[in-house]
Design a protein that fits this description.
This protein has seven helices and no strands. It has about 160 residues and is an all-alpha fold. The chain starts with about 25 loop residues before the first helix and ends in a 5-residue tail after the last helix. About 10% of the residues are buried. The mean pLDDT is about 85.
Length: about 160
């Protein structure tokens, strides 16, 4: 009896499917780089959020000033602008500048035109009794709001071309 030689054959054994775990060393490097980049972006966003705190506070204070009228509003706006400028540019001295000089200096820092229609006798308007200042106050308020939102940070201002 001749045994059947095909009866001794076995089926083909396939290898086990490739597992996703453990990861190859290249994937560990990619994961590490993504984690480092995510941490760097988070730190940058937190730093940016903290450095713009004075802006957010100034805009909140600006909303409160909007309810004031006349000279009180102008005085409060000038005070707010000076405090914001000191917070934005702590290495610069604004204390010795009068209101017009300060506004002219700050108008050079913004890309959009601000404080253009402010009269030269602003100091007189602040303390005059019988003068209507409604048009000046509206323009001044809108310019202040625009400047607070759009002024460059300290590093950008240092690299601005002189006007």
């Amino acid at each position: 009896m001749n045994p059947d030689p095909l009866a001794n054959l076995r089926d083909i054994h396939l290898p086990e499917p490739i597992s996703w775990w453990p990861l190859a060393p290249g994937w560990w490097i990619v994961i590490f780089l993504i984690a480092v980049a995510a941490c760097a972006v988070c730190l940058m966003l937190v730093k940016r959020h903290r450095t713009r705190l004075y802006r957010r506070q100034a805009l909140v204070h600006l909303e409160q000033i909007e309810d004031l009228q006349g000279q009180k509003q102008l005085v409060a706006l000038l005070e707010l602008i000076k405090r914001t400028a000191i917070s934005a540019y702590p290495d610069r001295s604004f204390a010795n500048l009068n209101s017009n000089q300060l506004l002219r200096l700050l108008s050079t820092t913004c890309k959009k035109p601000v404080f253009q229609h402010i009269p030269d006798d602003l100091e007189t308007l602040l303390y005059a009794k019988q003068i209507s200042i409604a048009p000046v106050a509206e323009d001044f308020f809108s310019s202040a709001k625009l400047w607070i939102r759009k002024h460059p940070n300290r590093v950008q201002w240092e690299h601005l071309p002189p006007c």
